[in-house]
């Protein structure tokens, strides 16, 4: 009777040992093969989904315009979140069991990819991996000019970069990423005034009261050699009343109209004859205003001691070019206003007339100059209206 009991005991011990051998944990996928490391528990003790993330765990120097992809090899994809400190995130799209990024990344930033998926036998887990984007030599900056302002009917949407966007492919990518929305809807086109200024102008002058919104999600876009943008911007502007000034250089007169009706006429004196002093003809746009300033010809290349040098304090200054042309008060030339051109290129007005024009002007008001043989070049100011609409469309990087 004793021997059978011993046999049963040995059998029981063997069965327990076998059960212990069969009870080990499932292996976690290795990060080195692009699969994410799992940092969560499943709802039941079941094997997690097999997930492959690119860039792989711990990758460094990832370019901001590289694509992120998440693929569930075994299991079902539920959700992907790509985030960074400070609230930065990357959007993406799902096709089947693959998620692919649809926006770019901020340079010099560590991102975490969190993938929630259902395992092949059920149970949900979240697996995480991290990588770091390339730290560029230079961070590019840009701004939306006139954001939040009420402007005149000739003001384009203007995105200005801190330096030239050097390659045509960079300009094209940037232009395709930005957008303009108007209320009411308006036909218009993007174009590059130069390699630093991307502008959107309507086919014709804006209608008063138009609301304009611009979206420029340019994080992760390249503008030059190892130079990348690290922020998004958006902006708005509202189109004010319709006002246009016309300066007849040859006949020494400025007229101002509102809604197509003339409201003012002023005698003026423009730039005296000469290659550096004659006032330019063309459709200019008010850039900004400054109540008081010192005009110094050295800022436009005429230094002290050279012929034509001047340095004078002026009031009621309305800028219309980047090359030194203003409409401003000039009490010293009142005797010439209406009869001859004696200035260094600006439009001289009597103090009271200049004050009225200053008070009633907005950035973006058109000022049409005629009557001289010197042409205003588009890059000398807000020169989008020097082009026909068809010519402006050709300034687009996508043309």
UniProtKB/TrEMBL annotation:
Feature: compositional bias, Polar residues: 95-106
Pathway: Cell wall biogenesis; peptidoglycan biosynthesis; Glycan biosynthesis
Active site: 328 (proton donor/acceptor), 346 (nucleophile)
A molecular function (GO) term: peptidoglycan L,D-transpeptidase activity
Residue numbers spanned by region Disordered: 26-63, 84-106
A Pfam family that the UniProt record links to this protein: YkuD
Keywords: Acyltransferase, Cell membrane, Cell shape, Cell wall biogenesis/degradation, Lipoprotein, Membrane, Palmitate, Peptidoglycan synthesis, Signal, Transferase
Keyword Hydrolase: no
Residues making up the signal peptide according to the UniProt record: 1-19
Keyword field contains DNA damage: no
GO CC terms, sorted: extracellular region
UniProt-recorded name of the protein: L,D-transpeptidase family protein
């Amino acid at each position: 009777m004793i021997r059978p009991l011993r046999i049963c005991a040995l059998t029981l011990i063997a069965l327990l040992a076998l059960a212990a051998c069969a009870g080990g944990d499932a292996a976690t996928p290795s990060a080195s093969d692009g699969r994410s490391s799992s940092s969560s528990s499943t709802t039941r003790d079941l094997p997690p989904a097999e997930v492959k993330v690119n860039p792989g765990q711990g990758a460094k120097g990832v370019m901001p315009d590289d694509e992120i992809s998440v693929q569930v090899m075994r299991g079902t994809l539920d959700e992907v979140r790509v985030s960074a400190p400070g609230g930065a995130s990357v959007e993406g799209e799902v096709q089947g069991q693959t998620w692919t990024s649809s926006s770019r990344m901020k340079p010099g930033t560590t991102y975490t990819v969190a993938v929630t998926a259902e395992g092949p036998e059920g149970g949900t887990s979240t697996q995480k991996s991290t990588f770091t984007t390339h730290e560029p030599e230079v961070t590019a900056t840009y701004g939306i000019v006139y954001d939040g302002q009420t402007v005149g009917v000739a003001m384009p949407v203007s995105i200005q970069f801190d330096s030239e966007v050097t390659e045509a492919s960079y300009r094209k990518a940037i232009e395709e990423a930005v957008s303009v929305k108007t209320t009411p809807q308006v036909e218009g086109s993007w174009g590059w005034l130069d390699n630093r200024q991307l502008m959107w102008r309507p086919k014709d002058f804006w209608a008063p009261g138009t609301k304009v919104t611009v979206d420029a999600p340019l994080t992760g876009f390249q503008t030059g050699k190892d130079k990348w943008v690290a922020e998004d911007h958006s902006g708005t502007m509202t189109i004010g009343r319709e006002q246009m000034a016309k300066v007849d250089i040859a006949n020494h007169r400025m007229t101002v109209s509102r809604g197509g009706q003339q409201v003012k006429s002023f005698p003026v004196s423009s730039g005296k004859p000469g290659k550096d002093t004659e006032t330019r003809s063309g459709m200019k746009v008010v850039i900004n205003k400054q109540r008081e300033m010192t005009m110094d010809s050295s800022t436009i290349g005429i230094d002290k001691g050279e012929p034509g040098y001047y340095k004078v304090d002026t009031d009621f200054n309305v800028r219309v070019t980047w090359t030194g042309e203003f409409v401003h008060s000039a009490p010293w030339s009142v005797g010439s206003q209406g009869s001859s051109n004696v200035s260094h290129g600006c439009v001289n007005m009597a103090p009271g007339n200049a004050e009225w024009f200053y008070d009633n002007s907005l950035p973006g008001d058109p000022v049409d100059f005629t009557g001289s043989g010197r042409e205003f070049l588009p890059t000398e100011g807000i020169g989008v209206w020097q082009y026909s609409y068809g010519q402006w469309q050709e300034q687009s990087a996508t043309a």
